Structure formats: C-alpha cells, structure tokens
Amino acid sequence: MWRFAYALPLLALPLAAVACGGKSSSSTPLPHDPVAAVKGAASKTAQAGSEHVHLVGRVVAGSQTVTFNGAGDFDTQAHLGSLHGEFSAGGLNGVIDEVTSGTISYLKSDLLTALVPGGKTWVKIDLAKTAKARGINVTSVLSQDPTEALTQLQALRDVQKLGTATVAGETTTHYRARLDLSKLKGVAQAGLGRYDVWIGEDGYVHRVKAIVTTGGATSTLTTDLSKFGEPVKVTVPKAADTFDGTKASIPGLTGG
Q1: Which end of the chain has fewer CB atoms surrounding its CB within 10 Å, N or C?
Q2: Three-state secondary structure call for residue 41
Q3: Alpha carbon of 229 to those of 39, 110, 146, 205: distances in Å?
Q4: Do 218 and 59 touch, CB atoms closer than 8 A?
C-alpha cells in the first residue's frame, strides 16, 4: 500500500519545480503561441520565494486505488516545505505529515510509526538515493533551478490553448500538453501523460494537473498554488525523533 501513497509526493516534485509560484503583478498579455506561453509562465514563476499548495492525488494500479488530499507551505529558495494530508488505500484511511528539507523527506503517520523501531515518530527518507534506484533524478528536480524547470518543459508536445477558467477566484488561461516521460532529463521510466496548466492574468501558474500512466499504474495529481511570496515557517524533525528508513525494509515504503 505505501509504495503507491509514496508515489504521490514523488509525482508532485516535478510539478513543484515547474510551477513554483511567485508574487502577483499587474496583468501581462500571454504569448499567442501556447508553447511560448507555458514556457514563459514557468520561467516567471520559477523565481518564486514561497507558496501555499493544495494537492489532490489518485493512484490506480490494478485493483488497488490510493487517494490523497492535503495542503502545505513551501519555501522554494531554502528548499523547505511541510505538508499535511489524508489518504485512503484499500479501505484503510489515515493521516500523514511530510516535511522536506533539500532531498530529505520526513514522514509521520500512526500507521507508519507502528512499523518503525525505537518509538520514533518520523521516518527519514533520502529521496535522492531511493529515486535513483527507480530511475528518477530527484536531485535535479529538487534544485528548483529555473533552468532545470525549463529543461523539463522541453519534453512537452502538442501544447494547446483550451480557453479560460476560474481557479480559486482568479481568471486563468487553460493549456494542455502531452508528456513523454522517457524524454524528461534524469527519468529512465517509460510512460505517457497529459499535462494541464492554468496561467493567471498575472503570468504565474495557478494550477497544474498531471495524469501519468507508467508501469501499469495511472497517477492523477492536481496542484493549486496561492499565497505567493508569503513567509513560510518549517520545523525539521529532531534526529532523536527520526528513524532512517532510506535503506530499511519497510513494507511498501522502501520496496519491502
């Protein structure tokens, strides 16, 4: 069960790199070319300092379905973030907290705590190490480098302008593109996806939705961004409260 729940934050990472928000500004006309519009918005929003995000995710693999609904705040310059959410998997419901610091992720859940020794409350995972084994270059994704974000966008094809829509009270323009995972830098997995981006009149990204099918599983993740540039406070768990699960065999979470 945990391997699919864990896929949700992994899916969110490239979206955060491409769609990290920025402070609002006056209305800016978007380029007529859809590809240029998306790339321009990604370039502009990649300069953000922080944002609030709301995530709604769903992973379907065979007869198993995992859903996730959560929200958090991220400092994209310091590479710090926190997320609190609820998940459901196979009739089992739970709450999970995640704190990220660089390429390190700390996870806490009543269900997860029961699987780790020593009465620890947080499980520490080195995403760079675990993702490398799965063919994902998480280090480059977490860099939040605007150049890296634009490099990822080079893999988009068949970008279309679909029209306008309101996202959290903001008027946006909706774009859609197709994504070939094998063409993403640092990704060895094969798969196809649909990538939707909603760009506000301020030129920033306000919503990203990805539907990706790979390895027999279909993942859907919608990310809404708001509160651009506001101060973010993140407390990293103390070493005494953490268990390093990077190489440990925790069923579903670390490949066990």
Answers
A1: C
A2: helix
A3: 21, 33, 16, 13
A4: yes
